[in-house]
Design a protein that fits this description.
- The protein is an alpha/beta fold and 356 residues long.
- The protein folds into 2 domains: 169 residues, Rossmann fold (3-Layer(aba) Sandwich), CATH 3.40.50; 151 residues, Rossmann fold, CATH 3.40.50.
- Helices cover 33% and strands 17% of the residues.
- The strands form 3 sheets. The chain has a 6-stranded parallel β-sheet with strand order 2-1-3-4-5-6, with helices on both faces. Strands 10-9-7-11-12-14 form a 6-stranded parallel β-sheet, with helices on both faces.
- Helix 4 links the parallel strand 3 and strand 4.
- The longest helix is centred in the C-terminal third of the chain and has 20 residues.
- The radius of gyration is 22 Å and the shape is elongated.
- The relative contact order is 0.15.
Length: 356
């Protein structure tokens, strides 16, 4: 489904499955939790988080060996995975796939299963699979969006803008929010990349920008140091990795956003603001990430970060918010499945809501 052809129910903030019961299943990674919780909240589900942690040999086999470890006692009393089964289960993380397929079997198909990533195996591991558009995966049970789902909606960002802290209010405009990632399998922040980033941020400071800067768990000290040294003479607030991360507040109050291109999730989150997003690409990359950034530039959400950016320049685009799009498709398919299967379901296979 193209983001510029969203149905009305997607963009009005409705919760199409409000009050129903679900699970989110992750391997504990923050990105997986953000994706699954974002979609569950967009659905309006009452949900529990099930975190999987298979032992090394079992984790390495997933998803190619679709079996859950025997010690998990899947489906038995006392197991973390036992009845009452959820009406919807939303999973992310390669190691969650065996649990998702086991849940489909145990619930006799009564649980509607969703996987938020390319399974790298058969596409029949879930009732619905979400893949980012840059993965170029097409199938009857696959939905794609330009950006990844997360927990923040545009109306929530608007609410955050209504109550900025005094420290942020005193900073002069324009405000540039800087989201720092870190090296990964695709990108490296070597000395040349750090110098390029420093030159870009220094030019913004000289052009009159103030800064709201935050880092991630992957941010190396050299990257944070390069960014802080480049903005030393400017008005700024730098999150020092103590206390709650003001990540979403910084995004809500930004006039423009600077994000390192190593992170698809952070770039996606920046694009929910509807504000100009400048992407700094370190050394490296992959064909898929090149497609991702190219698609966002074509959409009009992002531009490359260079030393020649004017922080006062503005442009507009419709905010990209994947979670409600995915939620609407889950709800549509869930309702259709209920209509088709209602006459055939036995009382034993119907999903039960947990008792309060």
């Amino acid at each position: 489904m193209s983001p510029d052809l969203e149905p009305l129910e997607v963009v009005t903030g409705l919760a199409p499955m409000a009050g129903r019961f679900g699970w989110i299943v992750t391997d504990g990674h923050l990105g997986a939790r953000a994706k699954t919780a974002g979609v569950a909240r967009a659905l309006g589900l009452e949900f529990e988080h099930k975190e999987v942690s298979p032992r090394l040999q079992w984790g390495k086999r997933a998803p190619w060996v679709p079996a859950v470890e025997p010690w998990e006692r899947f489906g038995r009393q006392g197991s973390a995975f036992s009845p009452p089964w959820p009406e919807v289960a939303i999973a992310a993380g390669r190691r969650t796939i065996p649990y998702l397929t086991a849940l489909r079997r145990a619930s006799e198909g009564a649980t509607f299963t969703v996987l938020l990533q390319h399974p790298r195996t058969s596409l029949d591991v879930a009732d619905l699979i979400w893949c980012p558009t840059h993965d170029k995966v097409e199938a009857a049970n696959v939905i794609s969006t330009l950006t990844t789902p997360h927990v923040m909606r545009p109306h929530q960002l608007a609410a955050l803008r209504q109550s900025p802290s005094h420290d942020i209010e005193t900073l002069r405009r324009p405000l540039a929010t800087v989201l720092l990632g870190g090296s990964n399998a695709a990108f490296k922040f070597d000395g040349a990349a750090l110098k390029r980033l420093g030159d870009c941020l220094r030019a913004l400071a000289e052009a009159g920008a103030s800064f709201l800067m935050t880092s991630s768990q992957r941010t190396p000290s050299a990257l944070l140091r390069a960014a802080t040294e480049a903005t030393r003479g400017a008005e700024r607030i730098v999150w020092a990795n103590t206390g709650a991360n003001p990540y979403w507040t910084f995004l809500a109050l930004a006039d423009l956003v600077i994000v390192t291109g190593d992170s698809v999730n952070m770039t996606s989150e920046a694009c929910v603001t509807g504000k100009p997003v400048y992407v700094f690409e370190p050394v490296g990359g992959t064909a898929k990430l090149t497609r991702f950034h190219s698609l966002l530039r074509d959409y009009g959400a992002t531009r490359p970060l260079t030393p020649h950016v004017d922080p006062a320049e503005r442009w507009a685009y419709r905010p990209l918010d994947a979670a409600p799009i995915i939620a609407a498709e889950i709800a549509r398919r869930f309702r259709a499945l209920q209509v088709r299967s209602a006459p055939e379901l036995s009382s034993a296979s119907l999903v039960s809501r947990p008792r309060a």
